[in-house]
Amino acid sequence: MTILSQVKRAVIVAPHPDDEVLGCGGTMARLAAMGAEVHVLLMTRGMEPRFSSAQVERVLAEVKEAHAMLGVTRLHCLDLPAAELDAMPIADVNHRVGEILAELQPDTLFLPFIGDIHFDHQVAFTAAMVYARPRSDKAPSRIYAYETLSETNWYAPGVTPAFTPNMFVDISQEIALKLRAFGCFRSQVKAFPDERSLEALEALARMRGATVFRNAAEAYQIIRQID
Questions:
Q1: How buried is residue 29: exposed, middle or buried, by Cβ count under 10 Å (0-12/13-18/19+)?
Q2: Cα distances (Å, whole numbers) of residue 39 to 8, 98, 106, 201
Q3: For labelling, which of 12, 40, 100, 222 has a CA lying 20 to 30 Å from the CA of 73?
Q4: How confident is the model over 185-213, as pLDDT tens digits?
Q5: Who's near 4: CB < 8 A, 6+ residues apart?
Q6: Pairwise CA distance, residues 207 & 218, whole Å
Q7: What is d(CA 49, CA 7) in angstroms, rounded to the nearest whole number?
Q8: Distance between CA atoms of 27 and 102, rounded to whole angstroms?
Q9: Using CA atoms in the order 78, 82, 85, 89, what is the torsion angle rounded to 10 degrees?
Q10: Which phi and psi angles does 109 have, rounded to 5°?
Q11: At CA 207, angle to CA 201 and CA 211, rounded to 5?
Q12: Hey, how many other C-beta atoms are within 10 angstroms of the C-beta on 15?
C-alpha cells in the first residue's frame, strides 16, 4: 500500500494561481485518478491597481482549465489581496484559512514551503499549520511541504530554512499531463532558461525522479505523518 492510497481528501494550499500545479500537479493527477478528492485552496486574488481586472480574470480562466485537466474536485478561493498579505492581521488570515479547512476536514495537506522567498507563501504555510494543530482526531494525518520553482530555491539557504525533501511521489506517468496543465497558464509561462518555463519544470521533475531512480518525481518535505 502506498502513502497516496491512504489519501481520501487532500487540500493543496496555493498562495497564488499556478503554485499548486508547479509543486503538486503530478501528485494531484495521481490522487484524482485513484479516486481521492483533490481540493485547491487558492488564498489570494490580484487587486487593482497592482493587477488589472482583465489580468485577474484571465488567470482564473487558466486555473480552471488546468484543474480540469488534473481532475481537481473543487477550487476554493479566499480572494485575499495578492502580494499584500503582510498588510493583513495574521489572525484574520488564519481564521479565513481555518474556516475552509475546517469545513473540508482533509486527511492530507500539501503546503508551500515555509522557506519560500515570497511572504505570501510563508503566511499560507503558517495559517494552514495553525488549523492543523493536533487537537482532535480530525487533524490532518499527513502534511507535506512542496517546492515551487522561483520561490523555494531563491531565498538564502543556510540563513533561511532550506528545502530538504524526504518524500518523493513518482509522476513518471503524469509528467506530460503536469506540463500540459502548467502550459494552460499562458500568462505565467516564461521562455527557458527562466525557472517558470516548461523546460525547467520538466528538468526539476527528472532530477527529483533520478534522485530515487524514477523517470520523474515531485519532492516533498514531511511536516507530519501519522500512520
A1: buried
A2: 11, 14, 9, 22
A3: 222
A4: 999 999 999 999 999 999 999 999 999 99
A5: 27, 30, 31, 34, 36, 169
A6: 9
A7: 40
A8: 23
A9: -50
A10: -120, 135
A11: 145
A12: 27
Q: How far apart are CA 116 and CA 46, in angstroms?
A: 20
Of 128, 122, 185, nearest in space to 151 by CA: 122
Q: Are 17 and 45 in contact (CB under 8 A)?
A: no
Contact 202, 175 (CB under 8 A): yes
Cα 126–40–79 angle (5° rounding)?
70
How many other CB atoms are found less than 10 A from the CB of residue 158?
Answer: 7
**Cell numbers at 137, concatenated:** 482526531
Complete edge-to-edge strand list for the sheet that includes strand 167-170: 74-81, 37-45, 9-14, 108-112, 142-146, 217-225, 167-170
The amino acid occupying position 36 is A
- With 0-12 CB in 10 A as exposed, 13-18 as middle and 19+ as buried, what is 163? buried
| pTM listed for this prediction | 0.97
- The answer, yes or no, to whether the previous bond of 112 is cis (omega within 30 of 0) is no
Distance CA 91, CA 58 (A): 31
pLDDT tens-place string over residues 124-165:
999 999 999 999 999 999 999 999 999 998 998 789 999 999
